[in-house]
Design brief:
single chain; alpha+beta; 8-stranded mixed beta sheet; 4-stranded antiparallel beta sheet; about 25% strand; globular; binds (3R)-3-hydroxy-3-methyl-5-(phosphonooxy)pentanoic acid
């Protein structure tokens, strides 16, 4: 039996080939495969302690009690772990993000990755990374990818084993790149990703086209990454985001704002002027720019001047999740 306490960390990731839509809602299996880069420096740290005196799980996020929906999602993950560990004890969970939470900056990815690893460790389950990643995927599919470092893929089929975890495609130094996160709003995202995907699947006339084309884009992007072809990776990254947002847009699921469009336009202008920069957006108004390391400073300075861009965070490809305390 474990010591019942674990401290873990995980980093955010940004999808280059996007996941959007669910093949199997109950098991949270993506409709399309995705490929992301894990980012150093955008980190969630989680402490989880089992406590026999608790009558329910508790969850503190950045020093205050977490919102009810975040607590409910945490309890769902912990219930899965308790069933596997055959151990009923409740847990006290506390998480800290070193980047703004709930502003569409992928905090759910690093959050559920750190939580899954902490829960598996503290409840004493002897699981490999694939199984821990599968656990994180059931809470947030993008979180499955944050267990691994560098460039990471997540498939869209549940194997007969029932375990669908993410896998590393290439190490962090495969491409000499940076990601510039251009923050355009400090608020919560308007439509959560699960809701946005559901609405896109039921209402968008272009959802079927997205589901058909996305696996090809994923395959082409993976091949370009393995060939270290940054130009092609960049083109496909921007194309994947535009196709995802176009399908959502047609269902009235609109994440972009004026500032998003200004930032995207600027990235295109910078590219036309010879800089290696490509834009991508997730379920929020921020623009993330994939940029070559050598062009990063010039692109960052230009993006900071775009009207509506509040600040720009620079991140580089980084490591997967890890255990700081607890475990074997
Ligand atoms: O894992 P979720 O439910 O937060 O969905 C993530 C969806 C996108 O961020 C838009 C795309 C992706 O692949 O990360």
């Amino acid at each position: 039996m474990s010591a019942g306490r674990a401290v873990t960390f995980a980093h955010a990731n940004i999808a280059l080939a996007k996941y959007w839509g669910k093949r199997d809602v109950a098991n949270n299996v993506p409709a399309v495969p995705s490929l992301s880069v894990t980012l150093e420096g955008m980190r969630t740290s989680t402490t989880l302690e089992l406590d026999g005196s608790l009558s329910a799980d508790t969850f503190e996020l950045n020093g205050t009690a977490a919102p009810t929906d975040a607590l409910a999602r945490t309890v769902t993950l912990l219930d899965r772990v308790r069933r596997e560990a055959v151990r009923a004890t409740y847990a006290r969970v506390s998480s800290q993000n070193d980047f703004p939470t709930a502003s569409g900056l992928a905090s759910s990815a690093s959050g559920f990755a750190a939580l899954a690893l902490a829960a598996v460790t503290a409840y004493g389950l002897d699981w490999d990374t694939a199984r821990t990643s599968d656990l994180a995927r059931r809470s947030s599919a993008s979180a499955a990818r944050s267990l691994l470092g560098g460039f990471v893929e997540l498939g869209n089929e549940l194997p007969s084993s029932g375990v669908l975890g993410a896998k590393q495609v290439a190490p962090p130094d495969q491409l000499d790149v940076r990601v510039l996160v251009c923050v355009t709003s400090e608020g919560q995202k308007a439509i959560g990703s699960t809701d946005g995907m559901g609405r896109t699947a039921t209402k968008s006339p272009y959802y079927a086209a997205w589901v058909e084309r996305a696996p090809e884009m994923f395959g082409e992007l993976k091949a370009a990454l393995l060939a270290k072809d940054l130009e092609r990776v960049g083109e496909l990254t921007e194309a994947s985001a535009l196709a995802m947002h176009a399908s959502a847009f047609a269902a009235g699921v609109v994440y972009v704002t004026g500032a998003t469009l200004e930032a995207m336009t600027r990235v295109r202008e910078l590219r036309a002027s010879g800089l290696a920069a490509w834009a991508t957006m997730d379920a929020g108004p921020h623009v993330k720019v994939l940029v070559s390391r050598t062009d990063s400073a010039a692109v960052k300075a230009a993006m900071e001047r775009v009207p509506g861009v509040l600040r720009v965070l620079e991140a580089k490809p980084g490591a997967g999740a890890g255990v700081i305390e607890g475990g074997k």
